[in-house]
Amino acid sequence: MKMNLFENINRTFNGPLTREISHYDYLRTSVRPEISELCNTLENWFGNFNGDRSEFLGRFRNKDEKQHSGAYFELFVFEYFRRLNYNVKFGRPDIQVIKNEQTKFYIECTLSPRSDFSQGQLDHIERIKEGIKTVQPNNRSILFKILKYGHQSPPTKKINSFLKTKLANQFSVPKDQEVLHFSSQGWKFEFVLYPIDEPKIETPPVINCFTSFLEIDPIKKLLLSLSKKKASKYSKKSIPYIIAINSDDMYLGENEIEEALFGRVMLRMDTGELVRDSRGFWVDKNRPINTHISGIIISKGLRPLDWPTKFELWHNPYAKNPLSNSLIPIDQIEYLRNDGRYLNKVETRGTLYTEIMGLSDIKW
Fold it and tell me: pTM score, two decimals?
């Protein structure tokens, strides 16, 4: 029996994607033409898929967004290399890439989450925001910070009661910003209330959650995700091994990727030199580590309604099994070596994945 990504059902939903609906359910029920076009594209990709289809569908259709997003990314990577005319074999947890009956390299796929809020924290934040809207702070915008997370759902009713009482005691047109603190059921909050000079219906009060930039660490998040896929079983193989990682972190840029791989850059106060003083994924105290990993493909921002904004290969300059830069026509970052040290970074532009995969003309 033929297995499809999406069940044949009548598409009736015409709304936007919200947190109340899973990504998979949105894709399969949306009546919007651009979503139907996307689903047809994904269905065509799945038609070429040669792995365990039942197992894959179980993850792709999962309401757990991590499971769904992981399968989505694997399908994307599988199709990308198939379009390069490789023989691609999918057998969890590995993608085996073959040319002329010879294995060229292995790939394992993984995800790297946001560094500001986890998915669970985002769900809590949305519940709190929806509750605060019922308070109707007509002449106040409210920013809040969660200082401590409790073990149960956030106490939205108590938060609302607390804010209603505070707002009722304010002057009708407050002039100053006010900071409030509230604790309940293991949760601790900081609320910042600030006035709107001329409240208007078309510009309602802002209600949002904030976090300190000191708490945001995209380098740590990327390192944690990579460490789960370092696959020591490949250390004895003579075939290149690549980790493909999709990051949903808006704070992850080129400098953060480099520091995650080679260690954080710090200024030595005694000499004024810039040095790497912490462990990276490829270097620890100037000593190469994880040398069985040939490179890392960084995909940035692949999600149900967005293709990646970045799709590039970072070569490991210390790899036991280096990956030839001619094997993948992708944007590549390499490091020239001299006496065991990496020197100049060399960037090579490749063919856009949208051209390779025939996505150039598709708009969501």
Answer: 0.78
